[in-house]
Amino acid sequence: xxxxxxxxxxxxxxxxxxxxxxxxxxxxxxxxxxxxxxxxxxxxxxxxxxxxxxxxxxxxxxxxxxxxxxxxxxxxxxxxxxxxxxxxxxxxxxxxxxxxxxxxxxxxxxxxxxxxxxxxxxxxxxxxxxxxxxxxxxxxxxxxxxxxxxxxxxxxxxxxxxxxxxxxxxxxxxxxxxxxxxxxxxxxxxxxxxxxxxxxxxxxxxxxxxxxxxxxxxxxxxxxxxxxxxxxxxxxxxxxxxxxxxxxxxxxxxxxxxxxxxxxxxxxxxxxxxxx
Length: 276
Description:
Layout: H1 6-16, H2 21-28, H3 32-40, H4 47-57, H5 61-68, H6 78-81, E1 85-92, E2 95-103, E3 109-113, H7 119-128, E4 132-137, H8 143-146, H9 149-155, E5 160-162, E6 179-181, E7 187-190, E8 193-199, E9 208-211, E10 215-219, H10 236-247, E11 255-258, E12 264-265, H11 266-272
Parallel strand pairs: 3-4, 4-5, 5-6, 10-11
Antiparallel strand pairs: 1-2, 2-3, 7-8, 8-9, 9-10, 11-12
């Protein structure tokens, strides 16, 4: 199931561009009351409405229609086939969150990408799989992705990597001795594997994605068929640039692991993401 419905997508595009409902109504020919219904999800859109709104919001019309009218879903069940990635599911107020453990099978060294708001499950997985945690890599500083960091560091006092612009977003900040601000393009070793840091501001000022040889852990920079909400909204153009030039330029078979919703691939997103 996709993280974002049609109503989420059009609202993110409208608010990101600072456009009023009245202005979109004038551009699309859909009455303001009808737009309110569509944005709130009170009714399904007709295909012609989808295409009109896409044009008004500078989104890709056929891709948006595939989601809104044809019920597109990404086909790649990546979390089931990736043998060196452990998916941890968490919950914050009924809202599912995903964190990951990426590890080298030869050495059992591992890094955590976001806490998944479920430190207990993270710690159980580390113990069950006999992993040695060497770092925590935060895609951004929001609570649903960093919550429980204190419990994890109490058991595994490892370095915490985060974009400098997101440090102030952390509700609980690790000791400065463990804080590592990410440098774009920097790499780290995980046993015999390599993780590269990719600065992707937009969802937050200091957003980061973490790339391996076959995967990219993208947090809320990108969802299957959508993107996270720009925080603040003035980052919306920067967010689009991060998605288009820093993620969708990767090899098409690259698997993308987001912080919410299903995994996907670069090819799927180039073909189906209306923001791409």
